[in-house]
Design brief:
The structure holds two protein chains of two kinds. The N terminus of chain A is likely disordered. In chain A, helix 7 crosses helix 14, helix 10 crosses helix 11 and helix 18 packs antiparallel against helix 19. In chain A, strand 13 and strand 14 form a beta hairpin. Helix content of chain A is 39%, strand content 13%. Chain A is built from 24 helices and 19 strands. Chain A folds into five domains: 105 residues, 3-Layer(aba) Sandwich (Glutaredoxin); 211 residues, 3-Layer(aba) Sandwich (Rossmann fold), CATH 3.40.50; 83 residues, Roll (Ubiquitin-like (UB roll)), CATH 3.10.20.600; 89 residues, de novo design (two linked rop proteins) (Up-down Bundle); 56 residues, Alpha-Beta Plaits. In chain A, the strands form six sheets. In chain A, strands 12-11-15-13-14 form a five-stranded mixed sheet. Chain A has a four-stranded mixed sheet with strand order 2-1-3-4, covered by helices on one side. Chain B folds into two domains: 76 residues, Ubiquitin-like (UB roll); 70 residues, Alpha-Beta Plaits, CATH 3.30.70.20. Chain B is built from seven helices and seven strands, in the order ββαβββαααββααα. Chain B is globular, with a radius of gyration of 19 Å. The C terminus of chain B is likely disordered. The interface between A and B is medium-sized, with 32 and 36 residues.
Chain lengths: 628, 202
C-alpha cells in the first residue's frame, strides 16, 4: 500500500510544497535497492504472452512463500523497446535482463534469482557476434547505444499508477512552470531548447506556441496528435502506454504557455491500451488536482479530453485532425489561416504530437540548456525510432539526433540477418523516402534527411535487404496513400493512383524509359499542386527510389527482370538438382502442388502451376530453390 | 489598398481579397472548377494554382483561398503552374470523359487525349463538391455530402438513399460545372416508384 500525507478523501495538491512533500514521501516509501521483478507489458510483449509470465511469476512467488505485497513484488511496465526478444523480465536492482521468458521459467527465476541471488544463464541475452552471455540491461548493445530521454521512465514505472510516475519525477516540469514562470518564460524556454516538432515536419515548437500566444485572451486549445498511422511505427503508442503522464504534463505546460484551458488528445481507436492508460492518467491527475481548476494553487485551469480517431491516416494532418475533433469529415483545409490563428472550432490552437509533448515535460523539468546540449546544432534532443524490417533487433530505440544511420541499424539494431549491409532504410513513413547503403554514414537529423530526399517523419524506420524490390516498395507506399487519400484535392486523388498504376506496369516488365520521365513530371505536379502534406509528399516514395535505385527500375523496364526476385511476373523459381536433397519440405509447403519428385531425389517445379508465392524458397533449408 | 504584382503587372487589392479575386478584378483569367462566388472557396480542384516567387524560392498556392498580401510576386501562367493544370486536366479526361466542359478546358491547355485508362465512359462528375457546398451554404438543406474517401469518393444523400432533407430546389444542378448533378438528382430527391422501375437498366 502506498502511504501518502493526504487522506483518500482529499488528494488535491494545493501548492508546489505539497507536491514536493508527496514526492519525497513516495520516494521514502520505496527502497530502490530492494529486489523487484519487472515484467514488460508493452503491446509487443503482451502479444508474446507476458501476461501469462506475470501470472506464473505471482504463482511461483506465492508457492515459494514470498509475500508479493511486501517485496514489493512484481511491477508491470510499458514497452522496454527490445520487442523481438519479448517477453522481457528484469530483476531490480541489478537490472538482470531475461529475454523470451515463458511461464514455465517463472519457478526457476523465483528460486534461483529471487531467493538464491543467482542468474538463470539460459534466459540471458547472447551477444550475436561473440556468443557471450550478457547479464544486465546496460551491457546489451541494443541499449548501450541509446540515449533515453522521452523513454526514460518507460519500463521503469507502472504506467497505471500516478504515484509511481511521481516517484520518477512526473509533474516536476508542470510545478516549475506554473509556480515559478510566466507563460512567456515557458515559451522562451521551449524556444531556447531548440525543440522541433516530432510529428514529421520539424517545425520549431516554441515558435508555433508564440504564434498562438500572441492572441490575447479568449478561448484557445492545445491538441495532441496521437493518430500515429505510418506503417510499422509505434513510437507514440509506446509513450502513451508506458508513460502517459509525460504527455499529460507536456499538454498542461503547453496550455499554460499559450493560455488554453482545454486540451484534446486525438488518438486512434486501434490503440486501446494507450487509451486505457491515458484515461487512467487523466483520472489520477484530476484527483491530485494536476488537472482541473486552480492547478497547484496557481489560478490556472486546464483539463484534457480524449478523442478517438476512426482510422483515417489523413486525420494525422493537423487541419484534418481538427475537423475530425469538431465532428466534421476529416479533410484538410487550406492554410492560411494557420491553426495558431484559426484552429479547432475557429480558435487559436496548437497541435503537437505525443513525443513532442513528452519532450516538453522533460525540458521544463531539466532546463532548456540541458536539452539544447543534446543532438546537433539544428536538431536538438533525441528521437525515438520504431526499428523494423530486415534487422536483427526489432524494437523501439531512442538515440541522440545526429547519430549515423549505420550506428542505428548495424550497431543498436544488430545488423541485417544474413548480410553485412542493408539495401535501403525507409524513414519518414509514406511521406518519407528510402536511403541507400551509400548513405550509411548520414547523420540522422531533420535537415540531413531532407537533403537526402527523405524526411524524419514521426520515426518509422524500415530496414530492407537485397531481397526487397524498390519498385515493389514504392508501389506499396503509393497503394497505402491511394487508400488513405481523402479525395478532396484533385492532384492527390487522381494522381496517386496514376503513379501506382505506372509502377504496376513496371513490375510486370511493361513500360518505357519515357514513362520514368512522365513519372517525374506527374510527381512534380502532385507535390506542387496538392492541398496538404499527404499529397505533397506522396511522390517521395517514387522519387527517392528513382534517385538511388534507377538501375533497378530500368532492369524491370528494359530487361524485364526484377533483380530482387520479388515482382511475380518477372521471376521464375527453379530447383538446383545438384543441391536438392529430396527432403520434400518444399513439396509440403507448396500450396499449388506444383513440385514433384521422388523422395531423396532432386525435385522439379511445374512452372505452369507455380504462382510464385515463394513458399518453397522459404522452406528449403539447403538453398536449393532459386529465384531468377 | 494592397499593392502586388501579377504576371509582372502592378495591381492593387483590398484587404480580404483572395489572389483569384484580385486577378479577376484586373481582368487576368485563372481557370477554376470548384470555385463559385456563392459559396466559400474550397481549394480542392487546384486548377487555380498560381506561383508565388520570393527571391530564388517559389511555391504554388491555390489562388481562390490564398489572401492577397502586400508585395507578393504572383505568376498565373508559369511552366510550373501549367504543368499542374495539364496533368489535372489529363487525369480528368480519363476520370470523367463524358464532360464536354472538361474536354474544352483541357484543349485550351493543349491536352487533347489522355494516356490513362478510362474506367467509366459515362462519368461526368469531377467531385468538386460545389453541389454539396451550395446545398449547405446557400440552401441550408444539407441534403447531400461527399461519401467515402479517395478514389471511392462520391456524392450522395445519407446512406445513398433518397432522403427527406432535399427540397428539390435544383440549386445543386444549377451550380454543377459539368452537368453531372442532373443525372444524380433523382437519386437524391427520390422519384415515384413507377419511374424507378422504368429507369432500371436492362
Amino acid at each position: 500500500m502506498q502511504v501518502t500525507a493526504k487522506d483518500s478523501a482529499n488528494l488535491r495538491l494545493g501548492s508546489l510544497e505539497e507536491l514536493e512533500q508527496l514526492r519525497s514521501e513516495l520516494k521514502a516509501a520505496e527502497d530502490p535497492n530492494q529486489t523487484r521483478i519487472i515484467v514488460c507489458h508493452g503491446t509487443g510483449c503482451i502479444a508474446n504472452g507476458s501476461a501469462g509470465v506475470t501470472q506464473a511469476l505471482k504463482d511461483a512467488l506465492a508457492a515459494a512463500g514470498e509475500d508479493i505485497e511486501v517485496m514489493p513484488g512484481i511491477k508491470t511496465t510499458g514497452c522496454h523497446g527490445f520487442c523481438s526478444r519479448g517477453p522481457l523480465v528484469i530483476i531490480k536492482p541489478k537490472n538482470i535482463f531475461y529475454q523470451q521468458v515463458k511461464p514455465k521459467d517463472a519457478e526457476e527465476i523465483v528460486q534461483k534469482t529471487i531467493q538464491a541471488g543467482e542468474t538463470v544463464e539460459r534466459l540471458l541475452y547472447e551477444h550475436p557476434q561473440t556468443g557471450e552471455k550478457i547479464e544486465t540491461t546496460e551491457d546489451i548493445p541494443f541499449y548501450a547505444g541509446q540515449q533515453r530521454v522521452v523513454l526514460a521512465n518507460i519500463g521503469q514505472i507502472d504506467p497505471t499508477k500516478i504515484d509511481d510516475a511521481m516517484r520518477a519525477g512526473a509533474y516536476a516540469g508542470v510545478a516549475k512552470a506554473l509556480t515559478n514562470m510566466e507563460p512567456q518564460q515557458v515559451i522562451d524556454a521551449v524556444i531556447n531548447s531548440g525543440l522541433r516538432g516530432r510529428g514529421g515536419a520539424g517545425f520549431p515548437t516554441g515558435i508555433k506556441w508564440n504564434l498562438a500566444a500572441k492572441h490575447q485572451g479568449g478561448q484557445k486549445y492545445v491538441l495532441c496528435n496521437a493518430d500515429e498511422g505510418d506503417p510499422g511505427a509505434f513510437m507514440d503508442r509506446s509513450v502513451m502506454e508506458g508513460d502517459p503522464h509525460a504527455v499529460v504534463e507536456g499538454m498542461i505546460i503547453g496550455g499554460y504557455a499559450i493560455g488554453a484551458d482545454t486540451g484534446y488528445v486525438y488518438v486512434r481507436a486501434e490503440y486501446p491500451l494507450a487509451i486505457k492508460h491515458l484515461e487512467k492518467a487523466l483520472v489520477d491527475a484530476r484527483a491530485y488536482g494536476l488537472l482541473g481548476e486552480n492547478i497547484l494553487g496557481s489560478g490556472f485551469n486546464f483539463d484534457i479530453r480524449i478523442n478517438r480517431g476512426a482510422g483515417a491516416f489523413v486525420c494525422g494532418e493537423e487541419t484534418a485532425l481538427m475537423r475530425s475533433v469538431e465532428g466534421k469529415v476529416g479533410e484538410p483545409v487550406p492554410r492560411p489561416p494557420y491553426p495558431s490563428d484559426k484552429g479547432l472550432f475557429g480558435k487559436p490552437s496548437v497541435l503537437n504530437n505525443v513525443e513532442t509533448w513528452a519532450n516538453v515535460s522533460r525540458i521544463l523539468d531539466k532546463g532548456a540548456d540541458w536539452f539544447a546540449g543534446l543532438g546537433t546544432e539544428k536538431s536538438k534532443g533525441t528521437k525515438v525510432f520504431a526499428l523494423v524490417g530486415k534487422v536483427n533487433n526489432v524494437g523501439l530505440v531512442e538515440v541522440p539526433m545526429g547519430i549515423k544511420l549505420r550506428e542505428i541499424v548495424m550497431e543498436i539494431g544488430g545488423g541485417v540477418p544474413g548480410s553485412d549491409h542493408f539495401k535501403a532504410v525507409q524513414t519518414g513513413g509514406p511521406s518519407g523516402g528510402c536511403l541507400p547503403w551509400q548513405d550509411a554514414e548520414l547523420p540522422v537529423d531533420f535537415d540531413s534527411l531532407i537533403a537526402a530526399g527523405s524526411m524524419m517523419g514521426s520515426g518509422g524506420m524500415i530496414v530492407m535487404d537485397d531481397r526487397d524490390c524498390m519498385v515493389d516498395v514504392a508501389k506499396y507506399f503509393l497503394g497505402f496513400l491511394e487508400e488513405e487519400s481523402c479525395g478532396k484535392c484533385f492532384p492527390c486523388r487522381l494522381g496517386v493512383p496514376r503513379l501506382r498504376e505506372t509502377l504496376n506496369r513496371f513490375s510486370k516488365g511493361e513500360g518505357t524509359v519515357q514513362d520514368i520521365d512522365d513519372l517525374y513530371s506527374l510527381a512534380e505536379a502532385i507535390k506542387a499542386g496538392s492541398l496538404c502534406a499527404l499529397g505533397g509528399t506522396a511522390p517521395n516514395a517514387v522519387l527517392s527510389t528513382l534517385r538511388y535505385f534507377r538501375d533497378e527500375y530500368e532492369a524491370h523496364i528494359l530487361e524485364h527482370r526484377c533483380p530482387a526476385g520479388v515482382c511475380k511476373d518477372l521471376i521464375t523459381y527453379s530447383i538446383d538438382p545438384e543441391v536438392c536433397t529430396g527432403c520434400r519440405a518444399c513439396t509440403r509447403a507448396c500450396p499449388q502442388d506444383a513440385i514433384s519428385g521422388e523422395k531423396k531425389k532432386p525435385h522439379t517445379i511445374d512452372e505452369s502451376l507455380c504462382i510464385r508465392c515463394g513458399m518453397c524458397f522459404e522452406s528449403c533449408k539447403f538453398g536449393a530453390v532459386q529465384v531468377q | 489598398m494592397l499593392s502586388l504584382t501579377i504576371d509582372g503587372k502592378k495591381v492593387e487589392a483590398e484587404a480580404g481579397w483572395s489572389l483569384l479575386d484580385t486577378a479577376r478584378q484586373h481582368g487576368i483569367e485563372i481557370p477554376t472548377l470548384c470555385y463559385h462566388e456563392a459559396v466559400e472557396p474550397f481549394g480542392a480542384c487546384r486548377l487555380c494554382v498560381v506561383e508565388l516567387k520570393q527571391g530564388n524560392n517559389s511555391r504554388l498556392v491555390a489562388s481562390c483561398v490564398y489572401p492577397a498580401e502586400e508585395g507578393l510576386e504572383v505568376y498565373t501562367d508559369s511552366e510550373k503552374v501549367n504543368n499542374v493544370r495539364r496533368w489535372i486536366l489529363e487525369m480528368l479526361l480519363s476520370e470523367c470523359p463524358a464532360s464536354s466542359e472538361i474536354r474544352q478546358m483541357a484543349a485550351q491547355y493543349g491536352v487533347e487525349t489522355t494516356r490513362f485508362e478510362i474506367s467509366d465512359p459515362e462519368q461526368e462528375c469531377i467531385l468538386c463538391g460545389l453541389c454539396v457546398r451550395a446545398c449547405a451554404q446557400v440552401v441550408g438543406a444539407n441534403a447531400i455530402s461527399t461519401v467515402g474517401r479517395g478514389a471511392q469518393k462520391e456524392i450522395g444523400s445519407p446512406y445513398l438513399t433518397p432522403g427527406d432533407d432535399c427540397v428539390a430546389c435544383g440549386t445543386c444542378v444549377t451550380v454543377c460545372p459539368t452537368g453531372a448533378m442532373s443525372a444524380r438528382f433523382e437519386r437524391v430527391r427520390g422519384v415515384p416508384a413507377v419511374v424507378m422501375v422504368r429507369s432500371v437498366k436492362g
